[in-house]
Amino acid sequence: MSLLSIHDLCFRYGEKSVLKNFSLEVEEGEFVSLLGPSGCGKTTALMLIAGFEYPESGSIVVGGENLNDVPAYRRNMGMVFQNYALFPHMSILDNVAYGLRQRKISKPAAYKAAEEVLSLVQLQGMAHRFPGQISGGQQQRVALARAIVIKPRLLLLDESLSALDRKLRVEMEVELRKIQREVGITTIFVTHDQEEALTMSDRVALMRDGSIEQYDQPSVIYEQPKNLFVAGFLGKANFLKGDIEAAQDGHYSMRLEDGNRVQFGVPRPLEVGSSYTIGVRPEKMEISATPTENATMPGTVSLVTYAGGVTQYEIQALGKEWMVQSQNATVHGAIFDAGQQVWFGWKPDNSLIL
Ligand SMILES: Nc1ncnc2c1ncn2[C@@H]1O[C@H](COP(=O)(O)OP(=O)(O)O)[C@@H](O)[C@H]1O
Ligand SMILES: [Mg+2]
């Protein structure tokens, strides 16, 4: 049985329907991300789980207990907000001990527990400083320590890394996952950053407009997106939309909306006469100076973007702009120049049928 089981949650702010039949199952110890564009209802979903808002219909069950009528302070959840919300006039130690003192734990016991958690987040030397005297990354750790010291049933994190600069954020991602595994705490992490969701999570719930479009492991949600929205939100893709006109040897000819025709293979049969959307990720494409088994389409490179580990090519062909990414496997950097004629394409297995 899942630790958290949310079923058909509906919620509105006034006239505006914010969550629509939102359902989610989270296993004990799991790290789950709620990912989605700004305004899709991620924070609202956390607010309902934490008990700061109540649903219009549907249920939230934790460990078999229906929480619909349980107030926030009885739910025993740890929440970290984007702005950390530390108490500026209290020392780090008092900030972390606060939740325990609220629960009537004696001062020595609360301080002892707070010190233990501070050493878990590697801030043992900072206990007597004030929030204004430590860096953003350290404040982030204090907020995390304050949330986990109460041993919550669920840890709820709302965009809690997005205020950090990129390098620190990546460090904290690794750190947070390490701490989460060490403590074994079931975590729901809200983010609008697809890379963060993919690298950190056991499972990702991709939200759109108040409900979940797809809920899967990172590799499944990226490699087998269920629809156009999921494929477009997570990573980049070239999309082909049109009618299948003919089939030959497992390859199909599609008439695009602008009248151009493109040939490609797919992992499972398509119906001739029907219309489809096909997606291909840039890194699944091949680019070559001469035609090869998979690079069968001629095109012209219009833009070369060197990005260290990879090079991104923009190719003009069939009235379209294509994105192709290639690994910089040698020390010579980009191999093709803007203006150059190239051949490109992809293996049938790499066609996503959306
Ligand atoms: N307190 C509020 N009152 C009215 N509308 C709100 C309130 N909070 C959020 N909303 C609206 O609810 C929708 C979802 O918001 P939110 O859950 O914050 O989205 P996200 O966290 O995914 O960016 C948005 O359209 C937002 O404008
Ligand atoms: Mg939000």
Describe the fold and architecture.
The protein has about 350 residues and is of the alpha+beta class. The protein folds into two domains: about 5-225, Rossmann fold (3-Layer(aba) Sandwich); about 240-354, Beta Barrel (OB fold (Dihydrolipoamide Acetyltransferase, E2P)). The protein has helices at about 40-50, 90-100, 105-120, 135-150, 165-185, 195-200, 220-225, 230-235; strands spanning about 5-15, 15-25, 30-35, 55-60, 65, 75-80, 155-160, 185-190, 205-210, 210-215, 240-250, 250-255, 260-265, 275-280, 285-290, 295-305, 310-315, 320-325, 340-345, 350-354. A six-stranded mixed beta sheet has the order 6-7-8-3-9-10, sandwiched between helices. A five-stranded antiparallel beta sheet has the order 13-12-11-14-20, with no helix packed on it. Strand 17 (about 310-315) and strand 18 (about 320-325) form a beta hairpin. Helix 2 (about 90-100) packs across helix 3 (about 105-120), helix 2 packs parallel to helix 4 and helix 3 crosses helix 4 (about 135-150). The model has no long low-confidence stretch (mean pLDDT about 95). Magnesium ion binds near residues 42 and 43.
What's the CATH architecture name of the largest domain? 3-Layer(aba) Sandwich
- Which structural class best describes the helix and strand composition? alpha+beta
Based on Cα principal axes, name the global outline: elongated
Query: What is the H/E order?
Result: EEEHEEEHHHEHEHEEHHEEEEEEEEEE
CATH superfamily label of the largest domain: P-loop containing nucleotide triphosphate hydrolases
Total number of domains: 2
Q: How many alpha or pi helices?
A: 8
Major pleated sheet: 6 strands, mixed
Number of strands: 20
| Share of helix, binned | 10-25%
Q: In CATH terms, what is the fold-level topology of the largest domain?
A: Rossmann fold
Instruction: Identify every distinct bound molecule in the structure, by name, code or SMILES.
Output: adenosine-5'-diphosphate, magnesium ion
Name of the level-1 CATH class of the largest domain: Alpha Beta
Distance between the termini: 32 Å
Arithmetic mean pLDDT: 94
Q: How many whole angstroms does the radius of gyration measure?
A: 25 Å
